[in-house]
Amino acid sequence: MIFGGNNTNKDIVHINDINEIRLHKIKPSDLGKKYIDKKGQEYKLKYDPIKKKVVIIKIIKSVLDGHFVTDKYDNIATDNVIKYEVKHKMGEMGKEFLKEKYNINGDGAEAPHQETKAPESEEKKQEKKEITSTDGIEITHLGDVTRVTDKIAERLEMGLKSILDSNVFDERYGFDDKLALDDMRRIIKADIIEEFKNLKVNYEDIFKGYNDSKLKTKLYGDEIKARLAITPEAERMNVMRQIEAIEVYRKGTKNILKAYDDIEYKMSIISEDKIKARNFHERQKFSDGKVCIQSCKNDTSKIVTFFDKEFKKMLKI
Q1: Strand 12-14 relative to strand 53-59: parallel, antiparallel, unpaired?
Q2: φ, ψ for residue 198 (rounded to 5)?
Q3: How many Å separate Cα 241 from the centre of its chain?
């Protein structure tokens, strides 16, 4: 359960994970509370006046603040930032070793050789095909939408990891890069993945009758009015629910498409020189990440097209 627990402080709520926080059921009194999952991560709720809804804010703590390090010491070795730092240091040590032992890239350096691409294994080719291909996805009913959005969530995580591994955005030393990566993480997790989950919940809630009172007094356009006028009274509420559910999903998914534009913009302003400064493997990672995110955007567009068609079907007289 979200609300309650054994803690005597009523402003602290213990949860298993973030998915237990249902934003559409949040009360104003809950905005002052702090939520702590079983891993010790803390969250708070905030009303976003732009989105006109309550959003979840993750409370970030330093990993070097005494008590936290004592409790989480074993997890430090798996921290991504530390992994990237070690990777960077190992690369620098390798360059120094080659310079000293073989006089490469030092005084009297050997002429640089053309970098060649190693043949891809069948496993790597299959992995890339799985990440980037969207041609085989066809949406014919709501079950397909759920299948596609689940796949989008997986691919977005892959895309973000590829971009992180590319080191094109260097969050260790570049403050602007850190802000850009933080924004991309937030957009992917909150504005796309979580928003798809919220749309599904809202869609299902409509058919549970939660919005019936609003639907009865809603001002409809001429097309919907004409559709309802020829609908028998006993079936009218069900038709209104179907139209509302499709509209919620259709408009929400169109808003999600705008989130991809924000990600693409952040990647487009990276200079070519900065990309070329990375080694071949890192440049390929960055390219794979961009392709993966574009693939997800294409799938999201397919969802919009599906609900556009469903909306037109509902209005046919």
Answers
A1: unpaired
A2: -65, -40
A3: 29
